[in-house]
Amino acid sequence: MKVDYIEETAIRKAFAFEIDAEAVEKELVSRARDYAKKVKLPGFRAGKIPPDVVRKRFKDALLQDAAEAIVNKHVFEAIEGRGLKPVAAPKVVDLKIDEHQPMTFRAVFEVFPTIEAPDHHGLQVKTKKAAVAEEAIDAEIEGQRERHARFEAVEGRPGRPGDHAVVDVSWKPADGGKGGREENAMLEIGAADNPAEMNTALDGAAVGDTRSLTIAYPADHASAAMAGKTFDYTLSLKALRVKILPDVDDEFAKDLGADSLADLREQVRSRLLAGEERKVTRELNEALVNEYLKRASFDVPEGLIERHMDARVEAAARSLYLQGVDPTKIGMDWKRFRESRRDEAVEAARADLLLDALAHAKAIEATDEEVDAELVRLSERTRKSKEALRAEMEKEGEISALRARIRESKVLDLLKADARLDFE
Amino acid sequence: MKNLYEVIRRPLITEKTTLLKERTGVVCFEVHRDSTKPEIKKAVEALFGVKVDDVRVAVMHGKVKRQGRWSGRRPDWKKAYVTLKKGEKPIEFFEQA
Lengths: 424, 97
Known about the structure:
The complex is a heterodimer. Chain A has 13 helices and 11 strands. By secondary structure, chain A is of the alpha+beta class. Chain A has 4 domains: 2-110, 2-Layer Sandwich (Alpha-Beta Plaits); 118-148 and 260-298, no CATH class; 150-244, Chitinase A, domain 3 (Roll); 303-423, Trigger factor, C-terminal domain (Trigger factor, domain 2, Orthogonal Bundle). In chain B, the strands form 2 sheets. A 4-stranded antiparallel beta sheet of chain B has the order 1-2-6-3. In chain B, strands 4-5 form a two-stranded antiparallel sheet. Chain B is globular and about 55 Å long.
């Protein structure tokens, strides 16, 4: 056997193999023997097929199997022999195999680049202190008021803007076709979301009234089923209700689990502040990594970029799935989506490599105590015991990912500690 | 006169014929039901480029097959044992699964 090691670039390497004809023959004979035991041929009893017949009848399959076995054996031996760490499984190219001939092929693969971590001191980035405006707290409390609103029946007067109408509504396309019906639908009279014709029809209507109306939807209407079409509607008003928002006082705060209104505002403030702090930290980390990346120049293995692209596709598909949408049925061109994430994936891969190089240079690792502390935090959030969570994560192989996350966050802390931050 | 390709139907590759070929150099074919020994000899010589020493034939009777209450019969067919002249290269059948 002859093996040549070729360094195509700093990260792209290859092995060129030439396997002796005898070794190929030996592999083919052993495969043919296996086949003879397993395959069934008319005219032959099971297990009695002569190897010659097997080799003639299953030549292509045998050659393919033998090639696979030879490649698996020699490529991994060669890689391990040189102590190389490929980013992804090697690609086999230019494979030539035939009976009584030497087999030749090349195994091409990428390795992680050797990066000299540049000086990380003095990265200059802009950031801001996380703060929450009083208006944001007001808006949050207003949202809570809306969610805790109650409805009271209106009696003795017709409907007017601001009232909520409970209606049975049926509709039919004006040009024929299948219509529909919905019972006890609640509409706010005069709401901007409603078609103007519907607001006009309900304004002044009394309980028990039936109104008919026709609505022609514009061609650019958001719903494709309705755009450019005309529908006939019949509305039967069953009840009128008025929305009553709770007063913002201590009583309201107590309903929401706070001691007083001031306490409620404080709770809302700390919740919003935590969210804002997370956002500021995320933006600061991104800015620091981007700034640090400017100080280094290195090639990124394609395999690593592909991995990041796949991760993005997976994340998008998972988020759709969690929203109850089947990602395979929305007519999305996932290949194009994957390709559109290339730039982002390149940056993420570069950041991974550089932060890893810095971690190596500074001997930063996640300690067992830090992993334990993180497990305690996660177990509180998931309401599982720490031991159960650890066992589950070990089974799924997630502990190493957790270690990597802690290590990365320690590297980011180091970048931040030694950076020059300009507060806006 | 039948076409050469009509005379030879298919080679018979079974455990028995493989052994026969290995031990005695005799090759077996399914041949046209009406073909004669001289026709078979000519066809094998022309199609495989070998010299034939001897041809023996046997008529195989079609099996009786039943499908429930209905009984039928497979057609009879002719088998030829072809002995090649001494020193001839054995015929290789190229069959791929």
